[in-house]
Specification:
23% of the residues lie in helices and 20% in strands. The strands form three sheets. The protein has an eight-stranded mixed beta sheet with strand order 1-2-9-6-11-5-4-3. Strands 8-7-10 form a three-stranded antiparallel beta sheet, with no helix packed on it.
Length: 279
């Protein structure tokens, strides 16, 4: 990854962060977490997927053999490690300001047989971006495996977070006649276990076909600036005991519902345009 730095490089300069996210639209930190930490997370994610598949609306299809599941933070044992990581905090503060809000945690899993997705962004670009030229949300991704080409890696078209798709379906899906622009710019990302990336979910991207014999689970954490509205699409919830036990540096940034007991998360962020493969 040309924009990646290593965890031991602790000088996280705001200018470097902003240059990457306002330029390419994606940056990464290599080796942010240990392999045993990632292995534990992978086990949790796969178990949570099996549980979600037993709940109507608990898992959303994102195309053939590809699923997205939103979960409660306390069911991911490393959530606090992520939310308190110095690079995570530095990126959020540099781009979204000191009052950034954690609004989503979930995971995406392309299984063997997952197909190429159409080029898209994850939601309609807000006026803050289209008119104000300002990013007001971020998505962090943490791979649970060492990504190989046959896994169907994430593919992104750098710099396209600024594209105006207001004349496209749902303002998210550029028509096929525009795809050559994205294909020409495309970069395939091959993160390894322990790496973490941050991107604008508006940067045009797609998942590619998984031709391997194993799943490629990726944990996702969604962050908003105070003026963003993505929390409305999610149901971030924690128990009262968990909420009270969180360190303030994490708890103060959560936009969540506090409950006496966890309830199943019913997914709301359906993306109809991803339900068919791109041909």
């Amino acid at each position: 990854m040309a924009t990646a730095v290593r965890a031991e490089d602790q000088a996280y300069e705001p200018a470097d962060i902003l240059r990457g996210l306002y330029g390419d639209g994606i940056i990464a930190l290599q080796g942010a977490f240990s392999r045993p930490w990632v292995e534990r997370m992978r086990g949790e994610v796969m178990a949570l997927f099996e549980a979600a598949m037993q709940v109507p609306g608990g898992a959303l299809p994102r195309g053939p053999e590809r699923w997205y599941v939103e979960v409660q933070p306390e069911r991911i044992s490393g959530f606090v490690d992520i939310a308190a990581h110095p690079w995570f905090v530095a990126v959020c503060e540099a781009v979204l300001g000191p009052d950034y809000r954690i609004v989503e945690i979930g995971f995406d899993i392309p299984f063997p047989g997952a197909a190429d997705q159409p080029w898209h962004r994850d939601f309609k670009a807000p006026e803050a971006t289209l008119t104000g030229r300002r990013l007001n949300s971020l998505a962090f991704n943490l791979t649970c495996v060492d990504t190989r080409l046959e896994h169907g890696p994430f593919e992104i078209a750098p710099g396209t977070q600024w594209d105006d798709l207001s004349d496209c379906p749902n303002a998210m899906f550029p028509p096929k006649e525009r795809w050559p622009r994205y294909i020409a710019r495309a970069q395939q990302k091959l993160p390894q276990a322990g790496d973490i990336s941050a991107r604008s979910a508006l940067t045009i991207h797609r998942g590619t076909a998984n031709r391997s014999n194993e799943a490629r689970p990726v944990l996702v954490v969604g962050i908003d600036a105070p003026d963003a509205t993505n929390a409305a699409h999610h149901d971030l919830q924690v128990t009262r005991a968990y909420h009270d036990a969180l360190p303030a540096r994490v708890r103060d940034h959560l936009t969540c519902r506090v409950a006496d007991a966890l309830e199943p998360v019913i997914q709301h962020h359906v993306i109809e345009g991803l339900l068919k493969p791109a041909y």
